[in-house]
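User: Fold this; tokens only.

Assistant: Input:
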Amino acid sequence: MKKAFQILFIGILIFFCFQPAFASIDCLIFFIGTDEEDLFHHSDPSVQKLFEIPLPSNVELLIEQDRFLPNGTFRYIRQGTNQPIEISLPERDSADPKNFSDFLRWAKENSHGSRKMLILITHSWGWKGIIQDYTVPGFPNTNTMMPLREFAGVAQESGLKPDVLFLDCCVCGNAEVVEEIKEVSPFLIVSQLDTPYSGFPYETLFENLSEKNPNPMELARSIPSNYVAAYSRGGKKVEAEGGCDFATFVAIDTSKWDSFAKKMKKLVRILRASGFRTLLRRDPVLLSGVYDGDGNIDVVEFLSRLPAIVSNSLVTDSTEEILKTLGYYQNVSSSTIPHITLDSKDVRSFEVRIQSDPLLASETALDDLKKQWDSVNRDLKFPKGLSFYSRETERRSHPLRELVVRGPVQETLRFRPWLPSTLYVILTTLKSDGTRSHRKFTREKGYFEFGDFPESSFMLSEAHSQGAHFIHGIGVCFRPRMNNDEERSLDPISGLSGPTFYKTLAWNRKTGWGDLILLENTFSK
């Protein structure tokens, strides 16, 4: 599982309204644990930028960093253009709640801001845990992780009370995670998918604070689109990441969450009475074309497809009610994402040239692009005989790469050509009468952003790469990958494992979701 930085980089941004003469100081406090070998190459340059970028006059920066080498833990305080003040600490287990609590107390005592934003850039396993530490003193070849309920408890007990909590880490944009941490902050920023290695472009955060002086809600709302844009074609983080990457983030108003959870509890009760568990037993791969490799499914996708699976007026009414509350309706679900349809009555064969990422390594480019193709089309079926090529050229001294897909059209064929880096698609078809047809499709940007949600919705804003067609804000685990062989299948607190661990989560206790979807034999293999 790809994880953002796969480090322990936890930051708090404490920001203020700028006032003339004696302005309060906005305070960014980062707790950083760059102790995973493959990812510190990405994280260290990003962290170094925090020391080099001129800070707005209303911003103070506080950092705790646990680096890749087991050479200690470091804290920093920085204002304006000044060099940071450094404090050295012994190497320690950053996933230990006691150490995390110590960091939060230090941050509270040393910050001067009236409003706060807590930013975590860390290795996360979603509902299985957060803040993974790979260099634990006295325990070589061991890594640790903090359960979400401990993280939430420590954060609340610290008294820091961040106005915004930004989790720059993987698979935290799911209902199980939000339910555990919703009391930590009134506004959350989370990603439903794995996050890019290089993280958020924090210079845009400084610019926003300096130029617009946003309130907490406005600041939270601004982050998803800025994050996703950074990994789209021409984005600020594309070169550092080594190419365009899938990205998805949502800003959440936690005061609206309980209303959504109550409606989901009602739907769960209706589904149980409608025999949904029987459907799951009969069809072990139900909706497998929509949920991801971690077994998570987007809530909007699930609700949009559910009435076609369970023919029951109560189910239809319940899903309609939730979708209306969310304000992210079926007309923007993946079923209406632009796709190309070729009718075998009119077309014999086709070739489609898809603008692709020129930064991908040549030796692996074709495999990488085929994976992207499979991801954006994973709910569609293709006939045998399709050929894939990676074409590399130059145009005006700039590298150009296209994924070329060719094949016969023996039956109606549908596909989505829009990969994360694609802004144009050229389709050539050989028609039944022997003539050729050429069409070009273009887009202005490689991502989608939404911000016009109704007052009833917990979503403030949402953005996702155009290749992430099955993401619309928040997900929920549909097929938890929890068995005796999978890492992190054991809860270190309760000692429970697998599905039993999942059922102890606050989300299951509130809605009964796990009791609905978890089948006794699902995890036996």
